[in-house]
Design a protein that fits this description.
Layout: H1 2-17, E1 22-26, E2 32-37, H2 41-44, E3 48-54, E4 58-64, H3 71-75, E5 83-87, E6 95-101, E7 105-111, E8 116-117, E9 138-142
Antiparallel strand pairs: 1-2, 3-4, 3-5, 5-8, 6-7, 6-9
């Protein structure tokens, strides 16, 4: 009997260890939003910020491994993002600030390493009621 319980406990521990961690994100208005699944950065990080044309990683996409002062010029993705995934390598300069305007200007929002924002209609630029969707023009890698 005790051997069975130990086996079941060991199997459960292994199953839980393989699950991605959950992070509760803040929408910038002081209220917690739906949990977002944080990427398993130890196994899946590839060093890129991903932007997707539609929510839930749908449609066309663009990716960057370095800063971009103008999404329109370098990826033809100005004001087109509806979901984002910061899949950068963990460490120094692994977070991203996205900006409403080119050249790192205008309203901004930080996106921590490993965070996936499935629907940018639900996420605002910091200190505003302006959603991120279809309003991002540049980004830079930082430490938040």
């Amino acid at each position: 009997m005790s051997r069975t319980i130990l086996t079941v406990a060991a199997v459960a521990a292994v199953a839980l260890a393989g699950m991605p961690s959950l992070a509760v994100a803040d929408d910038g208005r002081g209220s917690a939003k739906e949990p977002v699944v944080a990427a398993d950065v130890s196994a899946k990080a590839d060093g890129y910020l991903y932007a997707f044309e539609h929510i839930n990683k749908g449609g066309k996409s663009a990716r960057w491994a370095s800063n971009s002062w103008n999404w329109g010029l370098d990826r033809d993705f100005n004001d087109k993002a509806s979901s984002l995934h910061n899949n950068g390598f963990p460490g120094s300069l692994d977070d991203v600030i996205v900006y409403r305007d080119a050249d790192f200007k205008g309203n901004s929002r930080g996106v921590h390493n490993g965070v996936y924002l499935a629907d940018l209609r639900k996420w605002n630029f910091d200190g505003t009621n302006v959603p991120l969707q279809d309003r991002i023009s540049s980004h830079r890698w930082v430490n938040l």
